[in-house]
Amino acid sequence: MSAPETDREHADFRQYARRWLAENRPPPPPERLPITPIEVMTTGQRDYLQAWQRQCYDAGLVGTDVPVAYGGHGHNGLQRIANQELNRAGVPFLINIIGLSMAAPTILKHGTEEQKRQFIPGCLSGEEIWCQGFSEPGAGSDLANQRTSAVRDGDDWIINGHKVWTSLGHFAKWMILITRTSKDEKYQGLTYFLCPIAGHPGVTVRPLLKITGETGFNEVFFEDVRIPDSYRLDDVGMGWSVAMTTLLSERGAAEGAGAGGGEGEKAVENLIDLARNAWRDGELAADDPVTRDAIMQRAIIAEGLRQNARRARVPALCDHPMRLPLQQKLTHSEFQQDNARLGVEIAGAHASLYKLDPRAPDAGHWPLAYLNSYGNTIAAGTNEIQRNILGERVLGLPKSK
C-alpha cells in the first residue's frame, strides 16, 4: 500500500473510531469504577468493564492489528489510532490490560500456532482475563531471582511457589508465569508458562489490602500445580528472553493489542477544572498565579510526552531504538504522580475528604490518585531500575556500585 493510501486509511479509521465512540458511550456504571484496571475489586465492576471491552472489540478498536486467524481484525498500524481515540474520548478503560498489553503481544511473538489460536481471541474480547506472575517476595527488581519452580513430570509440569503484587489475580483465568526450571543457571534456568488460575487445583489467590483500601493486588500460591507442557511458551530455558518481550510491551515499547480509556489526555484539563472550583482563603485557586504556573508546567510536560510518543514511532528520529519507549514509562508514571500531588495541593484541606465523603472534590479522586500513583512508579520495574536501564543500556554508562 502506498503512503497516500495508508494516510487515507488511517484518517478514515480515526474518523470511524471517533464517531463510534461518540455514538456508543456506555451507560453509567452500576457502582463507582476505580482509577485504573488494576484496582478493579467487585464483580459488578468486572462485568461492566468486560461488557465494554467486548463492545470495543466487536467495533474493531481492540485487536485491530492482530491477524484474523487469531481473533483480531487483520489491519496494520491502526491499533495506535484506536488507543489514541479511546484515550481522547474519556470512556471507561479496558479491563484486560495485562492480556492486551502483555500476554497477547508475547504469545504472538513466541507462541505456537495452536497457542495463538487458543489464547488470543478470549484475551482480545475480554472474556478471559489475564494476570502476570513475575514478582515474588524475593524477586521484584531482581526479576531473574525467581524461586517458583517448575519440575518436568512426563508431559506435564509441577509448579510450586509464591507470586505477589498480582493485579487482577482474583478475576484472572490465566497467568503469564515465569518459573525456575534449573538451579544451575540464573537466566538460562527460567521457563515461561501460560498457567490456568481460576479454580485450578493447587492455586490459591489471596487479596492484598492497599493503603487506598482497595484490593486489586493479590498474592498467588502454587502447591503442586500440574499443567501440560503445551502451556509452555517457547523453549525450556528461554523464560528470560520471553519475559523481556513482555516487559518491552509493559514499559510501552510495543503497541499491544488494545489500550486507552480512563483519564487519558484530559489529565491537565481536570486540574484546570479543579482549580476553577477550589476556594482557598476566599479566592479561587485558578486566580492564584503560583497555581496557574504549576498547571502550566504540567501542560508543557503533557505536550512533551505526546511529542515523544510521536517521535518514538519514527526510527530515523531515534538515536537509540529503546530510549524513547523506555523513557515514556518513567516519565509518564511520574507525570501522573505529580499531577495527583498538584491536585491534592489545589484541593487544600478538602483533599483530606476521601472518596466516600459527598463533600470531597471530584468525588475524592485526587487523594485516591495520589496514593495509587506509587504503584505506577513501582510496576514494570521501579523507576530507579528504569533509570539504571536507560543509563547503562542506552547511554552506555558504567554500572553503579
Order of helix and strand elements from N to C terminus: HHHHHEEEEEEEEHHEEHHHH
Q: Which fold does the CATH topology of the largest domain refer to?
A: Butyryl-CoA Dehydrogenase, subunit A, domain 3
Subunit arrangement of the protein:
single chain
Which strand order does the major sheet show? 1-4-5-8
The count of DSSP E runs of length 2 or more, i.e. the number of strands, is 10
Largest sheet, in brief, is: 4 strands, mixed
Q: Could you list the spans in which at least 5 consecutive residues all have pLDDT below 50?
A: none
Give the overall average pLDDT: 88
Round the Cα radius of gyration to an integer and report it.
Answer: 22 Å
Fraction of residues in helices? 40-55%
In terms of structural class, how would the helical and strand content be classed?
A: alpha+beta
Task: Describe the global form.
Answer: globular
Estimate nothing, just give the exact number of structural domains. 3
- Under the CATH scheme, the architecture of the largest domain is Up-down Bundle
Number of helices: 11
Distance between the termini: 51 Å
Instruction: Say which CATH homologous superfamily of the largest domain is assigned.
Output: Butyryl-CoA Dehydrogenase, subunit A, domain 3
| Top CATH class of the largest domain | Mainly Alpha
Report the portion of residues in β strands. 5-15%
